[in-house]
Each structure stands twice: as C-alpha cells, then as structure tokens.
Amino acid sequence: MEFLHDSLITLFFELSPFMRHIFILLLAFGEGLPVIGSFLPGGTIAILIGSLSEENFINPWTAVHLIAFGSVVGDLIGFFFGRKMLHIKWVHNLVYHEKNIKKWDLFDRHAALVIILGKILPVVRSTPSLFAGARKMNPFRYTVYVIIGSYVWAMAGIFGGKYLQQLLGDATILIIIGVLIITGVIALVSFKKNKKG
User: Interior CA angle at 148 toward 145 and 141, to 5°?
Assistant: First the structure.
C-alpha cells in the first residue's frame, strides 16, 4: 500500500508548479460548466488537492483561489448560455409555462440559497447557472452568489482534504482515488443505462 501511495505522490509531483495550477484550474472550470460539471466529481477532486496540499503539492490558499476562480468562470458561462437558450421552445416552456410558475417563483425567492449551497451538492451544483440565466436573474447578483458559493465549496474541499490527510495519513490519497474511480464507473454505467432506456 505504501508503494502505491508513493507512486501516486510521485506522479502528481512530476507536474511543474505552473502545470499544477493549470490542472487545478481546468478541473474546477469543468466542474462549473453546466451538464459537464454534473458528471465531474469536483468535490472529491478538491478533497484530493487538499490532501496533496498537506504534502506540499500546493499552498492550500492558492488552491482555494484557483478552484473558486475556475468554478466561477464555468458558472458564468452556464449563466450566459442559459440566457441564450430561451429562444428554444421547450426551454422557454419549461421556464415560463403556467403550470411551472409556482416552482420558478420558489427558485427566484430562494436563488441565493440554491446557488450558494447548490455548489456543495453533487449533480445539482452546475445546473442553477442555466436556470438563473433563463430566469433573467440580475448578472451582478448572480455573480456575487456564485463567488460566495465557489469559495465555500473550495474551502470545504481543500481544508476537508487537509484534515483527512492528517487523520488517515497515507491511506487518504488511495481512498480518494478509489472514490473517484468508483464514482466515474457508476456515472458511466448510469449514463449508458439511461441512453438505452
């Protein structure tokens, strides 16, 4: 087990500091994108980076800023994409049809909670951006909410990963990578099953 841990650490540390930043930024950006972000295990990746920061892979606060920035950019793309999707008939009907008005009014009233706390929830985290855009939410207000949510998510992941590394030691990285693999397999099987059905 120690050999596997050391091999993984070596693999991560082969990246130059600049490439580590790019790697983290791209993962967070992908997590912020609508639909794509629903399948990426972004929270687990943030925990992995947090546990690696305990091994001096990256400064944890630098990782928090990179993850938050990448996530915000991905979410803003989703927000403006949601605004452009309103000309599609089924999207317009979904968002503005009479039978859905009560649900969307609830979304509008609790948009801050949905956007900020939604970042922490797997699968849900990247979809509010599309709906906020389609509902023509104020862009400044949306940006403030998504910045807060992205920082909450990034800090929870990074410092949670650091704590797990301190608690579990060398087994942490193996456990996290195992969770990433299992999550990826489950998502792939689920996607193929839904595609057939």
Answer: 20
Residue whose tokens read 């608690």: 167
Task: Considering only CA atoms, give the Rg of the chain.
Answer: 18
Q: Of 29-43, 47-61, 105-119, 157-171, give the lowest mean pLDDT range.
A: 29-43
- Joined tokens for residue 29: 């950006």
Nearest to 46 by CA among 29, 89, 36, 34: 29
pLDDT of residue 39: 64
121-133 CB burial, b ≥16 within 10 A, e <16: eeeebbbbbbbbb
What single DSSP character describes residue 108? Answer: H
According to the model, what pLDDT value does residue 8 have? 66
Token pair 């949510």 in the structure block, residue: 149
What's the mean pLDDT in 115-125? 72
Residues 6 or more apart whose CB falls under 8 angstroms from that of 113 comprise none
Nearest to 41 by CA among 158, 192, 182, 194: 182
Q: Is the pTM of this model over 0.85?
A: no
